[in-house]
Amino acid sequence: MSFSFAALGNDLYTGARSVPVVAKRRRFYLASAALIVVAALGLVLNGLNLGLEFRGGSEFRVATTSTPADYEQTARDAVGAAEDQRGVNVTLVGNDTVRVQTERLSEADSQDVRQSLATAFGVPEQNVSGTFIGPSWGQSVSSQALRALVIFVLAVALVLSIYFRNWKMAAAALIATVHDMVITVGIYALSGFEVSPATMIGFLTVLGYSLYDTVVVFDKVRENTTEAFANGRMTFAQAANLAVNQTMVRSINTTVIGVLPIAAVLVVGALFLGPGVLLDLSLVLFVGIIIGAYSSIFIATPILVSLRRNEPAVVDLEKRAQRHQARRAKDAAVESAGPRAGAEGDDVPVGVGAPAAAEGDSSTLTGRAVHKYAQSGPRNQPRRTPKSKR
Questions:
Q1: H/E element holding 132?
Q2: What is the pLDDT of residues 152-170, one digit of tens each?
Q3: Same-domain pairing of 308 and 205
Q4: pLDDT at res. 272
Q5: Overall number of domains in the chain
Q6: What is d(CA 145, CA 204) in angstroms, rounded to the nearest whole number?
Q7: Domain boundaries, position 81
Q8: Which among 328, 161, 138, 302 is positioned nearest to 236, based on CA atoms?
Q9: Among 329, 323, 328, 331, which residue's Cα sits nearest to residue 232?
Q10: Using one digit for the tens of pLDDT, what is the confidence trace for 55-102?
C-alpha cells in the first residue's frame, strides 16, 4: 500500500487521524529543554565569535594564485614576525583569498604586516589589502541591533494582543519566538561561525518567520476554539490539537520549500566560497527556519493550552464536552448492539412484534422514552395469540 502525503493531510484536517501534540506536550517541553541546554553550553563554552565589525581591529586579504596547504600557519608566522600579534584569525575566502584579522594596528604596523604577508605568500604587495574598523563602529552596530530587537518584541506583543484579543496568545507566541532565538544562537555559537552584520539580519529574519508560522496556527486555533465554546462538542485542548493537525502539513511544506534553497547556498558556501556573508546568513536561516517550524507546531499551541487550562470558561467547556462525548459514546454503543432479542422461550421473532418499551426505558436505540401505547413491529402485522389461549 503506497503512502500518500495528500491523503495524510486530508485525514489530519478532517480528524480521521490525529497527532496528540497537546496531550504529549510534556515530551516536547523536555525535548526543547534539552535543546536549550545544549545551546546554553555552546554559548558558555564557545561563546559567540564576534566579527571584526563588532570588536574592531585590522583586516588583511591576500589574493594568491595558489593557496598553500598550511596557509593558516603561514599567515600567523607572517603577522607574528611583523609585530608579535599572536591573537589572529585566519580564514580562507573562496579558493584564492586568505583573510587575516588582528587586533587594532597602527598605520606603520599595518604596512609591516602587508609586506610580511606578501613575502610569505610570494605575491606582490599590491595583492595584499588592509582595512581598519574601529571598535566604536562595532558598538554602534550592537546597540542598534539590540534596540531594534526590543522594539520588535514590544510591537509584536502589542499587535498580537490586539489581533487575537487575548494576551495569552501573544505571550505563547513570544515564548516560542524566544525559544527559537536561544536555540539558533546557541547552535551558531557551537559551529564557531563568525557573527557579522549579516548574521544579525538573519536573526531578525528568523524572528519574523517563526512568528508568521505561529500566527497561522493560532488563527486556526482561534477558529476551532470559538466553535467549541459555541457547541460544547470538544474541549479547548481537543480543539487546539485539531487546529495543529489541520495546519501541520502546510507548515511542513512551507518549511521544506524554504529550507531547500538555503541548504544549497549553505553547502556551496561551506565547500567553495568559504567564510563570508552568504555562509553566515544561510546558517542562521537554515537553523532558525527548522526550529521555528518545530516550535509553531509542538511548542506554541501546547503553551497556550497550558496557560489557559485553569480559566473558568475553559474548565466549563471541558465539562460540557465530556458530557456530550459521553452521550455520543452511549448512543454509539446502543447502535452497535442492534435490536434486542425477545426473552428466552418466547417465539416472537427478533425485532418483530417485540413488546413495546415502557415509558422512559433507556434501553431503546436512542435512549428516549417510548409511549406506552406505541406498537412495535410492522403496523399492519396481526398480533399472535399465545398457545395457552388457543
A1: strand 128-133
A2: 788 888 888 888 888 899 8
A3: yes
A4: 66
A5: 2
A6: 9
A7: 57-133
A8: 302
A9: 323
A10: 777 888 888 877 777 777 778 777 775 454 445 777 777 667 888 877
CA dist 206 and 52 (Å) reads 23
* Nearest partner of 237 among 342, 311, 314, judged by Cα: 314
In total, the chain counts a number of residues equal to: 390
In degrees, rounded to 5, the angle at the alpha carbon of residue 198 between the alpha carbons of residues 152 and 276 is 165
| DSSP per residue, 26-56 | HHHHHHHHHHHHHHHHHHHHT--EE-HHHH-
Amino acid at 160: L
Buried (b) or exposed (e) across 100-128, using 16+ Cβ within 10 A?
A: bbbeebeeebbebbbebbbebbebeeebb
Confidence at 371, pLDDT banded by 50, 70, 90: very low
Alpha carbons 240 and 321: distance in angstroms, whole number: 14
Instruction: For residue 145, give the C-alpha cell.
Output: 541591533
Same domain? 127 vs 158: no
**What CATH number corresponds to the domain at position 309?**
1.20.1640.10
As a whole number, the mean pLDDT across the chain is 77
Boundary-marking domain end, from 314, 337, 366:
314
Q: State pLDDT tens for residues 304-322.
A: 999 999 999 999 998 998 8
Q: Is 132 exposed, middle or buried (0-12, 13-18, 19+ CB in 10 A)?
A: middle
How many Cα atoms occupy the beta-carbon half-sphere of 43 within 13 Å? 12
C-alpha cell at 75: 599567515
Q: For residues 245-259, b (16+ Cβ closer than 10 Å) or e, as one string?
A: bbbbbebeebbeebb
Q: What is the DSSP letter of 355?
A: P
CATH number at residue 115: 3.30.70.3400
In a domain, 352, yes or no: no
- Residue 23 C-alpha cell reads as 496531550
pTM across the whole model: 0.71
* 383 in any annotated domain: no
Contact status, residue 154 vs residue 11, Cβ threshold 8 Å: no
- For the CA atoms of 267, 270, 275, 281, the dihedral, rounded to the nearest 10 degrees, stands at 20
